[in-house]
Design a protein that fits this description.
The protein is mostly helical. It has ten helices and no strands. The radius of gyration is 26 Å and the shape is elongated.
Length: 217
């Protein structure tokens, strides 16, 4: 009887501790803060290389202050932080959202350039990422049409040249494969693609960017 009584008492104490802990942790949650608070907190977390927490803090900023001008700036900063950590899928997630929401922004060419850059840096396996090459070249062509006077054009041109070189190398490998299989027509077709793909490297010109972007370049 005593053992049963003691067990019940211990159970009640454990439940009480759990409830108090849960309440305490709930009270510790942050909410209803000014936009500048979330923005500064996110910057500190990025500086500490804690991108998981920075993503969570951005979510709080975006949820509580959806229309604040801090949101688009925070998104671009997070994009650069994720690119630096080679987390290109997350960078593209924010870029897709930025382009969808802020398509008329004066910084839209910067966002489009970052998307090209993230795709290019994410290109690691030359003979597996054919689709990624084609998609990025398409994005580059669109960029050249829409943003002819963009200060990021020299960087886009450089990426374009490197992708054409990668594509030429890939076509050359395919041509040689056809030769090994005694398929001269297939080899000739891809040899011609190599000649059509090749471009001379463009001259790299320094790009002038605002100070708050330059630190993330």
């Amino acid at each position: 009887m005593n053992k049963s009584f003691k067990f019940k008492n211990l159970l009640l104490i454990a439940c009480a501790v759990f409830v108090l802990t849960a309440c305490s942790s709930k009270n510790d949650e942050e909410y209803n803060k000014p936009a500048i608070y979330w923005y500064n907190k996110m910057l500190k977390q990025i500086a500490s290389s804690d991108l998981d927490k920075a993503d969570d803090t951005y979510t709080s900023l975006e949820s509580e202050h959806r229309n604040t001008p801090y949101v688009p700036t925070a998104m671009l900063i997070l994009v650069n932080a994720h690119i630096d950590e080679e987390e290109y899928a997350l960078a593209n997630f924010y870029l897709d959202e930025y382009i969808k929401r802020f398509g008329l922004s004066k910084d839209i060419d910067y966002a489009r350039y970052l998307k090209i850059k993230a795709n290019f840096l994410g290109f690691k396996y030359q003979f597996r990422d054919q689709q990624l090459i084609e998609e990025t070249l398409t994005q580059i062509n669109e960029f050249k049409v829409k943003y002819k006077n963009s200060p990021y054009m020299p960087l886009v041109d450089t990426i374009n040249s490197r992708l054409f070189m990668a594509k030429a190398s890939m076509d050359k490998e395919i041509a040689e494969l056809y030769i090994r299989r005694d398929k001269s027509l297939g080899s000739a077709f891809y040899d011609q693609k190599v000649k059509n793909s090749w471009v001379e490297p463009t001259e790299i010109v320094p790009v002038k960017v605002p100070w708050y972007r330059a630190i993330f370049e």
